[in-house]
Amino acid sequence: MDYPPISFSVSRFKQERLTEQILNHTIDFPWLATQFIIFIFITRLSQKIKHVNLFHFVTFRQAVLPSSGQIVHNIQQRYWNSMEFRILSTDGNARRGIIKTQRGDINTPAFMPVGTLGTVKAMSPDELKEIGAEIILGNTYHLYLRPGTDVITELGGLHKFMNWERPILTDSGGFQVFSLAAIRDIKKTGVHFRSHIDGSPHFIGPIEAMKIQGILGSDIAMVFDECIPYPSSFEYAAKSIELTTSWARICKDHQNEKQALFGIVQGGMYKDLRRKSTEDLINIGFDGYAVGGVSVGEPKEEMHEIIYFNAPLLPPDKPRYLMGIGDFSDMLGAVDAGFDMFDCVMPTRNARNGTLFTSLGRVSIKREEFKYDDNPLDPECACYTCRNYSRGYLRHLFLSREILSMRLNTLHNLFFYLNFFKNMRESIIEKTFMDFRKKWETIIT
Ligand SMILES: [Zn+2]
Prior knowledge:
Blueprint: H1 12-23, H2 29-47, H3 54-80, E1 84-91, E2 94-101, E3 104-108, E4 110-113, H4 125-130, E5 136-138, H5 140-145, H6 149-154, H7 157-162, E6 168-170, H8 174-179, E7 184-187, E8 190-194, E9 201-204, H9 206-216, E10 220-222, H10 234-253, E11 260-265, H11 271-284, E12 288-291, H12 300-310, E13 320-322, H13 328-337, E14 341-344, H14 346-352, E15 355-358, E16 361-364, H15 384-388, H16 391-399, H17 403-429, H18 433-443
The structure holds zinc ion.
Zinc ion binds at residues 377-378, 381, 383, 385-386, 412, 415.
């Protein structure tokens, strides 16, 4: 007996609804029954089935099966990468939220100290925890070249390797490949480049980037993207976002089950391209969205325009990450625009160079005026450095190039950044973010 083929698919909305119901133990049986009746109606109407019998019911179940698979996948994704984002409060467009991961909560707006080579330079993981770092960033490109994925695989993943049990976000390596690597050849499948360390040839594309990030075992992975230089022509930028979108799709297809994956919006300084890149990424669907390709040498006004233009295009219910921005006024502007996550080497690199951020402004510790200064670096700061050492001593350590200088300076700068974010989060809850912004913009320029 021949039966006509039955095509039936559960829409994305219905899959989501079923997933919710299964997770909440509130399966809506009347709703399911209604769906079944609609199915019978449609099949009878379109395929002229006179009697719905057991065979049709089995076929129905088979037709629904792939969707059931999708529902199971949705549930697994919730539990496996289990990243959840909630907005707790808003003040204008500024959002105070929380990202929940298996390795801990990240309060947003969040600042992520940069741990390029499996260490936040000069800090131990215990010290980072003590000053309130909830997530750090690791660099895929650097860790891939040194120590290499074989070492990290053998030694149990990046968390265990560096003894950091809280969340880690890894970049995809794209930015470094395009900014550091010596020779490169861009293909649809990825980039051929030579190591900046020893000139050895390598290849990283979206598949490789996902594989390396899977080995590192970060909690949040980033898609492999092309970060174009400033300035770039409209034609080049347009071609580039096509490539970045196609790579993003491949990354999504190769997403590791235990990792959240963020898309990266590119498009240079061209608003049309930024919009297109954002829409393309939303169509693919990511756990969070980053804006890349800013602060690459463009004038500040242009950067701010892109930040304010791009933020409202991003889905409001997902974390928004502005990559590589660490200047205080830029971060304040970006939070005002609706961004939630930041990373930058500014606090750590500046600390090693003797530039310290304080409630009195930016301080260059090597200056002569601090030679006999017995005051703490920042009288309002509660960090270990400010509680125990004088400006005169910090100046001496810096000029003597003592290792302790880097440690104490880094500790202060990171503490200052993390405390700044903590106070900014409170200001959003208290609806005084604009006052907070004005105050700090005049102190640290
Ligand atoms: Zn301090």
